[in-house]
Amino acid sequence: MADLTKKIGDLDVFPLALGGNVFGWTAGRDASFAILDAYAEGGGDFVDTADSYSWWVGGNRGGESEEIIGEWLASRGGRDRMVIATKVGVHPEHKGLSATTIKEAAEDSLRRLRTDHIDLYYTHFDDPSVPVGEIITALDGLVREGKVRQIGVSNIELDRLEESLAFSDREGLAKYVAIQPEYNLVAREGYEGERMRVAERHGLAAVPYYGLASGFLTGKYRPGVTVDSARAGKAGPLLETERGRRVLAALDEIAGARGIAMATVALAWLRARPTVAAPIASARTVEQLPALMAVAGTVLTGEEVASLTAASE
């Protein structure tokens, strides 16, 4: 599948990042191993997690997802063919982005992941109390030590993002190569516009989270249908919006004409957007995975992209 890979800095990645937020939450160890096995066997090599996943589950402390991924990597081998992305800033024991916090959190992530390097290390949420220079310098130190290959940024205000990129350029330090925004057919405003233009100017690859809007864009949420999902509270209300109904109708039409899953079409639209390298999507069962991975071989026509874009305005 070499012809399908995308570039994030100097990293070659499969065009669908497997979300690890479900590992240790809605997918236990055995189910997580099965999902990771199926993803890798299908050519996938890009796994996204965070040091805080899944602290919100009763009895969890944070880091469960990393531990599962680390155990899987150790048991399966082939670490060098996988691209592992994780994040810093939200773990209950490592909140914020001070230089000390970043260094300590990275060491804990490396231990849980059972590896000597993190391929892509994101700041999970910005910490405005810390100067961007301190954050970038700390991340640069990890890169220089060989503990991190590339750095990325997730939730951050535009002015702080631009300040961070300018600092890296001015000081000749490690620079963000990836941005992870919330971005999908029913959530476009937060990324499109100036944020996307900044990404284009600086060569940042976008790796959108909530690519399927918490499952809404799979089409399983319909009037009168009760969905057994931990994310129903977020996805369900979208059905009550005119925009949500328009998007579902457009997805239905294209998916039906092509004979593919709505999830595949929704992710393919994201892949067609400027700057996007690989949307993130998670599966809590192996059966959910094929529709996600099919995005690698799905290219929408200009007319299909335009139809979905218009429906999501």
TrEMBL record:
Pfam families: Aldo_ket_red
Gene3D superfamilies, alphabetized: NADP-dependent oxidoreductase domain (3.20.20.100)
GO MF annotations in UniProt: oxidoreductase activity
CDD domains for the chain: AKR_AKR9C1 (cd19081)
InterPro entries referenced in this protein's UniProt entry, alphabetically: AKR, AKR_Detox_Biosynth, NAD(P)_OxRdtase_dom_sf, NADP_OxRdtase_dom
Single GO cellular component term: cytosol
Keyword DNA-binding: no
Stretches assigned to the NADP-dependent oxidoreductase domain: 16-312
Protein's name according to its UniProt entry: Aryl-alcohol dehydrogenase-like predicted oxidoreductase
Organism this protein belongs to: Actinomadura viridis
